[in-house]
């Protein structure tokens, strides 16, 4: 990037040596691994003060240490995004530590796949609770730090993570597809209600990104919710490996699956001043799949 582009919409960019998100504060949920971890590391590298959260305290501590090792400012808040007290805990902690909030990245989530006719109520409800209700409650809690007077405004945005399942549906994912479609409507509403306060709201709809949620189910990855173990992954999926070949991805024009780095870069773009006039948008990050 040329130094002539050091200013974008009044904000400093990485070309100034201070980072695209210099001195901005970002809350990132589900930051213990995968897309959340990579996004937190990238934001910190770009000058943000990051408030990271995850249900897995051990993994979260590891990410906190990584960020500190690269010289970043970080606050780790362990918790379940679906818990009633979580929004107040993370928002109050962020403001106490850093004095403000510029961005929220609602990334936390998991899949709990079953065919529609065999999906019990609780399996449907838990996915909507984590992917729709939890982001809504966190955003609502942070409202006083976004609905600001003109002289208090900085670059501020909300990012809700969706999926191509929310755009097109997917076999075995009636619950997940419903939830990921719902956050798109939530995002567009935020864009309309909070736009007058200078707040942007966007959704990222990921296609195949290589994480534990898209790895082979046969690998045995699980997570525990409410005392129950939930198997993660996709039956027979081909994960990212040195053995992967372009022909393994015939439906993706780029002929590969995405990486957490690919995902984090898309999120960084949308929160940064480079996307200062982008709001209410759903950015598909799919390698061209579905076009």
TrEMBL record:
<dbReference type="Pfam" id="PF13561">
    <property type="entry name" value="adh_short_C2"/>
</dbReference>
<dbReference type="InterPro" id="IPR002347">
    <property type="entry name" value="SDR_fam"/>
</dbReference>
<keyword id="KW-0560">Oxidoreductase</keyword>
<keyword id="KW-0521">NADP</keyword>
<comment type="similarity">
    <text>Belongs to the short-chain dehydrogenases/reductases (SDR) family.</text>
</comment>
<dbReference type="GO" id="GO:0006633">
    <property type="term" value="P:fatty acid biosynthetic process"/>
</dbReference>
<dbReference type="Pfam" id="PF00106">
    <property type="entry name" value="adh_short"/>
</dbReference>
<dbReference type="GO" id="GO:0016616">
    <property type="term" value="F:oxidoreductase activity, acting on the CH-OH group of donors, NAD or NADP as acceptor"/>
</dbReference>
<dbReference type="GO" id="GO:0048038">
    <property type="term" value="F:quinone binding"/>
</dbReference>
<dbReference type="InterPro" id="IPR020904">
    <property type="entry name" value="Sc_DH/Rdtase_CS"/>
</dbReference>
<dbReference type="InterPro" id="IPR036291">
    <property type="entry name" value="NAD(P)-bd_dom_sf"/>
</dbReference>
<protein>
    <submittedName>
        <fullName>Uncharacterized protein</fullName>
    </submittedName>
</protein>
